[in-house]
Amino acid sequence: MENYIKTQKTLTDKKRFTLTPNLSSPFISPDTIIHIGEIAKKYGGVLKLGSNQKISIINLKEDCLKEISKELQLDLVPKSKSLLTNITLCTSNFCRMSKYPTIGIYMKLVKKFYKMELPAKTKIGISSCKNSCNSAYTKDIGIVVDKDGKFFITMGGRAGTNPKAGYTIASGLNENQTILILKTAITYYKTNANNKEKLRDFIDRIGLDSFIETCVR
Ligand code: SF4
């Protein structure tokens, strides 16, 4: 349970905590939202929508955390920064601009990589067109659908105080080719990066050409 309770950084000295249900998909049934909302209301929590497309219950007191997690009956997102839990998707199949229904590849990536331990915090963003509404270009890994309905992959993007777009490492891909390259690249990064080394820093250290040569075959 401790692995799932985040201590909130507040402006006061009151101790408050956060629990985040793992919703598995950015498309959530109204019943699930109502369920989470009712529990938050019962225990005086506040709902916060995160850029990770998850709904956290924040402002919780310590003594009710066990009860809440029991009542939620949902998986919780672990707090460890080295576990890959941030995989986001744009409006995808529900958007008129969509060039490819990316919900399928999203679910496959969640199944394959969710909670994988990596050297540093890693985010994946999937966008169904080059507009990239969920900022896939500045995620550690971006998967974007081009005008022709084919995927291209960017890696090494970052937001924060020193934002950078990721390098394009492969293009003109179908779904299976995309997953294969991701599997190779993530395994390569996991096995060879230094502790806490971000994907961008890893690519820059070993050289972009060498990284592409290893991961794209
Ligand atoms: S990235 Fe494209 S398909 Fe996805 S929500 Fe934005 S405009 Fe729509």
Automatic annotation (TrEMBL):
The regions listed as transmembrane in this protein's record are: none
UniProt keyword terms in alphabetical order: Heme, Iron, Iron-sulfur, Metal-binding, Oxidoreductase
Domain Nitrite/Sulfite reductase ferredoxin-like: start-end pairs: 13-73
Nitrite/sulphite reductase 4Fe-4S domain mapped to chain residues: 99-215
UniProt keyword Heme, yes or no? yes
InterPro entries the record matches: NasD-like, NiRdtase/SiRdtase_haem-b_fer, Nit/Sulf_reduc_fer-like_dom_sf, NO2/SO3_Rdtase_4Fe4S_dom, NO2/SO3_Rdtase_4Fe4S_sf
| Superkingdom to which the source organism belongs | Bacteria
Stated name of the protein: NAD(P)/FAD-dependent oxidoreductase
Annotated source species: Paeniclostridium hominis
